[in-house]
Each structure stands twice: as C-alpha cells, then as structure tokens.
Specification:
Layout lengths: L15 H4 L4 H6 L7 H14 L4 E6 L2 H11 L5 E5 L4 H9 L3 E5 L10 H10 L4 E2 L12 H10 L2 E5 L20 E5 L12 E6 H10 L19 H31 L18 E5 L6 H10 L21 H9 E5 L6 H16 L2
Parallel strand pairs: 2-3, 2-4, 4-5, 5-6
Antiparallel strand pairs: 1-7, 6-7, 8-9
Helix pairs in contact: 3-9, 4-5, 4-8
C-alpha cells in the first residue's frame, strides 16, 4: 500500500545546516556522548525556558529510559502502579527497572489515573511507586493524585511523554508535578529530535539520575543503571529545534482549536479539562455505534491516515476492573496535527470524519 497523502505523522525537523553549528564544541572537545557540551547546553537552555518550581531538566536517550532511570535512582524495586490506558512504553520502562507493573483503570472523563482509580492498586497490595500518564500529552492537573501519593509515602513519576512544552490550565509549564515528569523527544513528538527525552526533577536528584543513565556510575554512584545518555548529535538537533519551537506549537494549537470547534456537534467525545497542550495529535472518542477499526480503514480509503491509541489497553492477571480503559481503547481514534498543516489538509480530515460518522 502506498503512503497516505495525508499521513498521521509529519515531523518538522531542523535542517542539518541549522544544527551542525551546535556541534563545534563537541568536536573541539572530541566528545560525542557522556554528557558532552551540546548535551549540557541543551539542558541549561531547556531549564531556563521550561523549568518550574526550581526544577532542572536532565536529558535522556528516550522517555522510556528516563522513566526507568527515575525508578533506579529512587531505589524502587517492587510494584509500580500504571494506568491500563497508555502506550506500552510505560510498562516497558517499569520492566527495564526490574520492577513489577500493577495495572489500574482510568477515569472516564479525563482518560487518566486519578486518586480513585489508584485505590484499586493500593487495595491489592503494597505499591512502591506510581507512574500516571498524561494521556496524549494533555495538560491536566495531577495535584490531587500527587497529594494521595504523598499521604501513602509513594514516589509519583509522571509519564508526560507527549506533553513537553504544554501547560496546566493555571499557565504553569508541565514538568512540576510529582517527584518528576518525563518527556519524549521522539521524532513523532512536537519537540522531535529523532530519539531523546528529558526528565524534569529537583536539582538534588540530578546526579543520581545521571548515574542511573550511565550504568549506575558517576559522581554519586548508585549501583544500578542502564545506558540512557543522549548523544551530542541529538542534542544539537534539540538546540536547533528550540529556536523554532514556539512557532511550531502555535500552529498546532490553531489546528486543535479548529478541530474542537468543527467537531463539537459531530457525535464524537472531545478532550475535556486539557489545559494548554502542544497537541502531538488530536484524540476523539467515537460514539458507541462506531467501530474504530472500520473507521480507520474507511479514512485510509480516502488517503487519510488516522490511528488508534492506546490500543489495546494493558491488562494483567488479577487486576481489578479495567472497564473504562478497555472501552476507551476500543473507541479512541486520533486525528493528525502537523506543525505545518494547511487549512486544506485539515478541511479534508474534518470532512472525512463527519462523512464516516454520518454513514452507517
């Protein structure tokens, strides 16, 4: 099958001429990984621009390695509660750290873990850490969940993979809730550099996390670790991306605002209480009569690529009811959002969605 005329993902990457100059210091130092000059400069600039509540940003080779490194740095060795409605990388990060994932349901309105759904995991036995997910990178306030974790004496590490550059409804940058928040810089993300990620955390934890990302060795050796460092070439792309990031996000917010307006009466359920995200994609929950797989197939026949997320939902033996997660996974479809999306392209996507919904 030929590539779709309107694909689901269309990365907007800096050209080589934009990022190669940021490697001069790396070549002068003959250092291309292990927290080199470009890595450190990108950490500094990201912290200056997006750091909040005194937090710093530590770079990683991916959000998955960043999540695992946080568990390792904190010495978590047991059960980690995660939502059933998430991308498999959340579960893989827990396994990478040698921990046991405990799957719990999500809220039907926010599509995310809440204090109420976390109680499923807490009631089933000891929980050593909690890893909620910012579904689709949306900017919902996790303060109540953070308080519940504090009451239970449990670290809360937020998988905010698609959320970098987004804000809570209060206007605060994402990255300041829980023990840490972890972002992805994968090419599919808005701040896409190919592969990479960043961990927003208190400065007091930074050395431990860097050690965890460097096989467990470093200024503060912690004994457990993985190879999760970001190389200098990816960091250079990140420095170039930072210079155009605001413009890319502004266009994506325009696209999302139009989807919200045009699809309000279409019959789909739109995101609610979402803060001010950067919109990697635009999720819609199909009505009960619609079949998500057929919906995606019929759009593809029109040369438009839609995708199902997070499908299938994670399941685990002995888990409490996962009814909401299973229903969301069965009915959720995501529409494309590009940093350079034209009005004509969005016209086609909207018309396609409305037409399929109207036809039995």
């Amino acid at each position: 099958m030929n590539p779709p005329r309107i694909p689901f993902i269309r990365p907007t990457m800096p050209a080589p001429a934009e990022w190669l100059p940021f490697l001069r210091a790396s070549y002068q130092a003959n250092r291309f990984t292990n927290f080199g000059p470009a890595n450190r400069l990108l950490e500094e600039r990201l912290t200056e621009r997006f750091g909040m509540r005194g937090r710093t940003l530590v770079l990683a080779s991916s959000a998955t390695s960043g999540l695992a490194a946080m568990l390792l740095a904190l010495g978590v060795r047991g059960r980690v509660a995660i939502p059933a409605f998430t991308f498999p990388a959340t579960l893989r990060a827990v396994e990478m750290a040698g921990c046991t994932p405990v799957v719990c349901d999500v809220d039907q309105v926010t599509w995310e873990m809440t204090p109420a759904t976390l109680e499923q995991a807490l009631a089933a036995g000891r929980v050593d850490a909690v890893m909620p997910v910012r579904a689709f990178g949306l900017g919902r306030d996790h303060a109540a969940l953070a308080r519940r974790c504090e009451e239970a004496g449990i670290a809360m590490i937020v998988d905010a993979a698609a959320g970098f550059g987004g804000k809570l409804a209060s206007g605060e940058w994402l990255g300041g809730q829980g023990t840490a928040e972890v972002f992805s810089f994968h090419a599919t993300k808005v701040f896409g550099i190919g592969e990479g990620g960043a961990i927003a955390l208190d400065e007091a934890l930074a050395d431990d996390v860097r050690s965890a990302l460097n096989f467990g060795i470093g200024p503060k050796a912690i004994g457990r670790g993985l190879n999760g460092k970001l190389n200098e070439f990816a960091a250079a792309v990140g420095l170039a991306m930072l210079e155009r990031f605001a413009e890319l996000v502004a266009r994506r917010r325009e696209v999302a605002a139009r989807y919200l307006e045009e699809l309000e009466q279409s019959g789909v359920t739109l995101p609610a209480c979402f803060g001010d995200p950067v919109w990697q994609c635009f999720p819609v929950l199909l009505p009960e009569h619609a079949d998500a797989e057929d919906f995606v197939r019929r759009a593809r026949e029109r040369d438009i690529e839609l995708r199902r997320y997070y499908h299938p939902a994670l399941t685990a033996s002995g888990a409490a009811s996962l009814e909401t997660s299973l229903r969301l996974a069965a009915k959720m479809v995501c529409l494309p959002v590009y940093s350079d999306m034209s009005g004509a392209e969005q016209d086609e996507v909207i018309a396609c969605v409305e037409e399929i919904l109207k036809r039995p």
